[in-house]
Amino acid sequence: MSKPQKQIHLAAHFPGVNNTTVWSDPRAGSHIDFGSFTHFARTAERAKFDFLFLAEGLRLREHAGEIYDLDVVGRPDTFTVLAALAAVTEHLGLTGTINSTFNEPYEVARQFASLDHLTEGRAAWNVVTSWDAFTGENFRRGGFLPQEERYTRAAEFLATAHELFDSWRGDEILADPATGTFLGDAKAGAFVHSGRHFDIQGRFNVPRSPQGRPVIFQAGDSDEGREFAASDADAIFSRYATLEEGQAFYADVKRRLARYGRRPEQLKILPAATFALGDTDAEAEELAREVRRQQVSGATALRHLEFVWNRDLSAYDPDGPLPDIDPLVSDGHIAEGRAQVRMYRDPLATAREWRERAAAHGWSIRDLVINTGNRQNFVGSPETIARSIDALVQADAADGFILVPHLTPGGLDAFADRVVPLLQERGVFRTEYEGPTLRHHLGLEHPDGSGAARAA
């Protein structure tokens, strides 16, 4: 008996706080003007995507003690943007990244419960942790948690938030779902939590929302992150968008669900993916090369090399050979304010490998960074990209993809107009939204165990 076709899940990541976007392109727009967010969200909804995703930037990034100004920095407040987008969309899920290291459960639960009401059941929370004292300085407690305890706090944070969401749960009606008017039950909203990280009690003042709880996303790739996702998340982001790596990640995370009494379909695996779309495969390949060179200027290449070398390399020619000096290994780092600092656990080994690859291919510093950095995951004509996405999902390398275009806000338009119809023709992507909530879009059960999420 043949295996039934899986339905593909698609989402859109508004590209900011990273160097994926080509902000210097004349077609690029503002990353803070609301019109950019509106255009992007309406395109995603027109294409019947599951949700829009916002990352979070809690501090301007720095490099060698100065603001890092070679890619987009900064981001308006996540909840403010998502609440505003609720008014200009009707079906699109709205997902925000909110940190569990520097926030408090009551405040975050109240904000997400409110957003779920405002959107009539379209809210989602990407639960992340933060390892660095650099960001923590904004909260007057930089470095207050050892790295190994981040997920311990995150797990208790999420459990506490769930207790708050569920404090209005009961067989009897506690509030009018249309007006929020309180209808009875002296226990409504009452909560008590006493644990290692949080000791709180009181009344939660937001009634049960349409989804019961927001959809929970998790983004960690470590063993602790995978376990955290398997225990309590509805979806996990992945950086593995190739067949072999994607299948390995998919099988590993899905396998962990059983120990928590969960089924494979209760956790969606959604890698982030970039794309270069052309009329032909050859045209798309040329566009991909152009985009990579736009993303990696000479100055950007030198800064990237400094992540590994931990030295000021500004005197080197980005179009020349790699430095012959070794990386400086120390507790401090030239790029404390950049996430890439911890990507290279063994800088001496990385430097040796890079020198060997550069020598073998005749690469300059800039060539090396271009060829070892992020690459477009999907490159080709609309037919090629649709076929590639479908093949990866059907092969259990993913349940779908979170697309990150290189242009803001119009970079998603061509994909919506040219690739989505081909996926629909294949019968693997919706032509209309089938339910009102994000849980419906993702095929997730309501937390009450009542099947798909209930309508508001």
UniProtKB/TrEMBL annotation:
Keywords: Flavoprotein, FMN, Monooxygenase, Oxidoreductase. FMN binds at T97, Y151, S222. Its EC number is 1.14.-.-. GO terms for molecular function: monooxygenase activity; oxidoreductase activity, acting on paired donors, with incorporation or reduction of molecular oxygen. InterPro entries: Diverse_substr_monoxygenases, Luciferase-like_dom, Luciferase-like_sf, NTA_MOA. It holds the Pfam family Bac_luciferase. PANTHER family: ALKANESULFONATE MONOOXYGENASE-RELATED (PTHR30011), C2H2 FINGER DOMAIN TRANSCRIPTION FACTOR (EUROFUNG)-RELATED (PTHR30011:SF16). Belongs to the NtaA/SnaA/DszA monooxygenase family. This is NtaA/DmoA family FMN-dependent monooxygenase.
